[in-house]
Automatic annotation (TrEMBL):
Domain DNA mismatch repair protein S5 positions: 212-329
Full-protein interval shown: 1 to 341 of 629
GO molecular-function terms, A-Z: endonuclease activity
Reported function: This protein is involved in the repair of mismatches in DNA. It is required for dam-dependent methyl-directed DNA mismatch repair. May act as a 'molecular matchmaker', a protein that promotes the formation of a stable complex between two or more DNA-binding proteins in an ATP-dependent manner without itself being part of a final effector complex.
Organism lineage: Bacteria, Pseudomonadati, Pseudomonadota, Gammaproteobacteria, Alteromonadales
Gene: mutL
Family according to the record: Belongs to the DNA mismatch repair MutL/HexB family.
Originating species: Shewanella eurypsychrophilus
The protein, known as: DNA mismatch repair protein MutL
Keyword terms of this UniProt record: DNA damage, DNA repair, Endonuclease, Hydrolase, Nuclease
Amino acid sequence: MTIQILPPQLANQIAAGEVVERPASVIKELVENSLDAGATRVDIEIEKGGSKLIKIHDNGSGIPKDELALALSRHATSKLSTLDDLDAILSFGFRGEALASISSVSRLTLTSRTEEQSEAWQAYAEGSDMAVKVIPAAHPVGSTVEAVDLFFNTPARRRFLKSDKTEFTHIDEWLKRIALVRSEIHFTLKNNGKTVRNYRPAKTSDQYLQRLAQISGKKFAQQAIEINCEHDDLKLSGYIQSPYFESPASDTQYFYVNGRLVRDRLVNHAVRQAFAEHVTGAQASYVLMLDLDPHQVDVNVHPAKHEVRFHQSRYIHDYILQVLQSALAQVGQALPAQETH
Ligand code: ADP
Ligand code: MG
């Protein structure tokens, strides 16, 4: 074989292997784009577990007509311009790969309008060179991305999709995670024509507790202990379910660093240790947000972005442990004895 540059569609399909695993990962990428664009409302619509249709509508900034084609190209991003930017990344996206990847493995249209434009435009890529067509459309300020027939042209991938119900569950689970940290955003989810989730904007702690009840159950919300502690450049906030009750703990265990859900051994250890010291055998349920200087943490470890690397890991560990220890100690003392069992 002679050496050849891969046609764009093929190159994008290969790249899609990393970011587009299943409908839930498509939704993750698209909704994160909406949030990066400053949307306050995001409406998600799916059919057949997302394999037939994924549609994301937002009221964000929109994309100017002359940038629509770029938005669909690989390595095109408005969020990063130098390698240094990577050290302090706060937006979700930055690789400039999602739209190009999704577009290469589905029938994707991107419709958008900015505040400055009086009309909307729709873009889609065609053929193996993924040439972008732009046509007039009707749309309010914001964007809609529609991905139809996911993996229709990559049958091997399509075979890996599970039942519609399983794919729905993955989507629903991902939406819970984002809805708990981006509580100011109104999210809706429509499944096969029926609205199944409606998370109204939660701007007060009462409203937040309502959202928490919707997502993690009434018990967690009723027994929630608020965490809110700032120390130097670290802030830990959120809720933990009081372990001083016999009722079952919720299975919610979400920890966010600068707005991203992370799965981190160090963090888990600190949380578990804090709970273990107060109530033996108690299962920790929590929604916690750690905010710190983005220079103090690397998020660029993996495309799925679940891992992070803290520069001062011991310090972070001890901080989390101490904040939770003291919150649990306070509540434990305030409780009358009979409520502890
Ligand atoms: P990335 O998010 O890594 O930059 P994407 O392929 O996901 O890459 O998106 C490419 C670009 O398209 C983004 O940088 C952004 O400028 C624009 N874009 C994508 N989705 C939206 C949206 N919903 N609203 C506004 N701009 C968007
Ligand atoms: Mg993106």
